[in-house]
Amino acid sequence: MKIDVNVDMGESFGRYILGDDEALMPWVSSANIATGFHAGDPLVMERTIAWAKKYNVAVGAHVGLNDRQGFGRRQINISVEELKSDILYQLGAIDAFLKIHNMKLQHIKPHGILYRMVGEQEIYIDAFLDTVELYNKDLYIMLHTGCEALKRAQKRGLKTAPEILIDLGYDAEGNWILERIKKERSPQEVAARALRAVCDHKIDTVAGDLIPVEGRTICIHGDAPNAVSVAKAVRQALEGAGVELAALDKSM
User: What SUPFAM superfamilies does the database record attribute to this sequence (predicted)?
Assistant: First the structure.
């Protein structure tokens, strides 16, 4: 059995450090690197890409709303035209750094509230998919398992990476619960959730029930206070159960 483990990275800015990106790299298979809108800057982006290459970690574009103060987690009612141009701008930025490091972009994953906007809100779904299809049909689209955007992407023949967010709460309907500030969670509890999600295809809700879940990738948030400990515990638990960590192209 194989699974991709992805983590949000590259979210520091100037002298302000958020997350220990290099320390996370040995424990994951894919990195969602911030593209400068919700977080990150050019120096941080390139440095994080260099670390990904060093540790053989695949790279995805973690595109967000232009909202640094709110860390991309506040709803902004941008136009469809703004959505398209903002995403293209961010994809072009990260691709430039990947090019000079002889790497390729594996996937695109929206950040924060944009994840919900393009995954579930009718006004944005097709505009998002149109933009990805226009820019690079080979990109995996990483979104929440079962969301409307993934269903439409699959019908279009686009590559998809259904995601399980193992360090966030879920409600009874299977929706993940957005945290404005990332909470610290027990590494052992997150690792147990990862094992259950990958091996038993179930995840617990905030009410304590178990609901079915399927995914090709599981997410750990790099801005959690103890993200490195969580990532290490998850990898060790998965490998201990015979599950191999592999980037998306290698996890088929």
Answer: Glycoside hydrolase/deacetylase
